Structures are given as structure tokens and as C-alpha cells.
Amino acid sequence: MNLKNVLFFEAKHIGKPGMIREFHVKDTTPLLELFDANTPKYFHPEEKEDLKHYLENEVENYFVYTFENGLVAAGGINYKPEEHTAILSWDIVHPEFQGKGIGSELVKHRLHFIAQQRIYSRCIVRTSQLVYPFYLKHNFKLISKHPDFWAKGYDMYYMKLIFES
């Protein structure tokens, strides 16, 4: 494993180091299990096919957080270079690890990864009414709301973060 693409850190309340690394195809099954653990609280069951499609066809950069040899969180980045825009995609944290700093570490890791490229002036995330307060904590601003976008009862909140020059 290329340690250049690995980040070790200790999330709050866990007290042991975890690791952020790039997604590998072998992570697909554990990632889908992670999705199932968050369904229906955060995802509609029909979204699972969208996640499978994303993993097979749309991944540009996708990172996983492992803890004690298990995958407990993941999140991706997609790009629109012609618009100088990066997009956070498919953030998932196992319910037992939510509120322990892992999601925040994944966001910080990806925002740093994006900033290092120096061509993106903004980052967007399309999330739900259930999770948007998390992104507010990371300085994303709510731009618009779209009721029942993902599925009935799952609204889409479009959020944006502008990078400082």
C-alpha cells in the first residue's frame, strides 16, 4: 500500500487510530452493508442501486475509513473542472460510529485533497434534510431544497462551500 495515500488519525471518543485510504473494489460488499445499516434512517432502499452504479461507473476519488480491520465509513469526490467545482458524494458512516468524529475527518481529508489540486474554487454536496446540519458545521451554506428528491420523504439539500483564495 502506498502510504502517501493513507492517513492515520484518532477520532474523538474512540481512543484508537483509524485509517483513511482509497477505495478498492474489494470494499464494495462491506460498503453496501454500511449502506444497509443506514437504511431507512438516512437512505431510501431504492438508492442502493444508485450507489452500486456510482461505485461501478462514477468513482473518481473515493475514500474509506477503516477501524480494527473493518470498514466503518466512506465518502467520495467527483469533479467538474470546467466549473472549478468539486462534489462530495456518497458519505456513509456506520451508525455505531456516528458522532465520534469519523465523518468530520473524512470531510476534512477530502477538502484538503481538493484544495491541494488548486483548480477548484468551490465544493458542493447534495444531501438530505436529515444530514445537512452536519455540513453546516463544516461551513457549507444551504443554497436550495428539493422536496422528495431522493424518494418520498427524502428531500435534497443543495449546499456549497467557497474556498478562500
Automatic annotation (TrEMBL):
A GO MF label: acyltransferase activity, transferring groups other than amino-acyl groups
What Gene3D superfamilies does UniProt report for this protein, alphabetically? 3.40.630.30
Top-rank lineage group of the source organism? Bacteria
| Limits of the N-acetyltransferase domain | 18-164
Instruction: Output this protein's name.
Output: N-acetylglutamate synthase, GNAT family
Give the source species: Lishizhenia tianjinensis
